[in-house]
Amino acid sequence: EDKVVQSPLSLVVHEGDTVTLNCSYEVTNFRSLLWYKQEKKAPTFLFMLTSSGIEKKSGRLSSILDKKELSSILNITATQTGDSAIYLCAGRGSSNTGKLIFGQGTTLQVKP
Amino acid sequence: NAGVTQTPKFRILKIGQSMTLQCTQDMNHNYMYWYRQDPGMGLKLIYYSVGAGITDKGEVPNGYNVSRSTTEDFPLRLELAAPSQTSVYFCASSYSTIPDQPQHFGDGTRLSIL
Lengths: 112, 114
Fold this sequence. Notes:
The structure holds two protein chains of two kinds. Chain A is mostly beta strands. Chain A contains no helices and eleven strands. Chain A has one domain: Sandwich (Immunoglobulin-like), CATH 2.60.40.10. Helix content of chain A is 0%, strand content 60%. In chain A, strands 2, 4, 5, 9, 10 and 11 form a six-stranded mixed sheet that branches. In chain A, strands 1-3-8-7-6 form a five-stranded antiparallel sheet, with no helix packed on it. In chain A, strand 6 and strand 7 (61-66) form a beta hairpin. Chain A is globular and about 45 Å long. By secondary structure, chain B is mainly β. Chain B has one domain (4-113): Immunoglobulin-like (Sandwich), CATH 2.60.40.10. Helix content of chain B is 0%, strand content 49%. Chain B has strands spanning 4-7, 10-13, 19-25, 31-37, 43-51, 54-57, 64-66, 76-78, 87-94, 104-105, 109-113. The interface between A and B is medium-sized, with 26 and 28 residues.
């Protein structure tokens, strides 16, 4: 059975800290891994990773995929209170349905 | 752009009642999905559709039904509501799977069954 596991499940840091969120996956015929940020409502898309070792970056956020280790990390540098959210990782296999398998999410709280 | 719109935002149902959660998208996306999110459990796929007239079960379909008569709309029906269906429901859509595209989510419907 396909599964995605995130760690830690929750994290509390102070503004300015750097955090690393982990995601490991077991997805049949793996094709891509996606990261989403969820604040009060809808998950919003951050990154989609398909190739191993290529870093995707957007401002203070970056992510990389390691296909050998079946894992991905999401880094946030110089954290701000606005980074407080649930971060969701999802894996996608090669079927043409586009279905995503989500991890449990990591709840990040950034204190001032 | 409206994107993915879900109604209602909140609803309280009594055990045994039925209701339909509405989802519509204006992005001409072929692929649509229904998820439920329980605390600490991530999102679980209930049903999905790869185009008008085509639907299929996800991980947790029991107690739910869907239909897809148009590209824009993908309603989720709960028959005989049970307390275990208390959850936040998200609808999502994407344009294609080749090449891979991210799914875009609605704001969710918070449903309580009492």
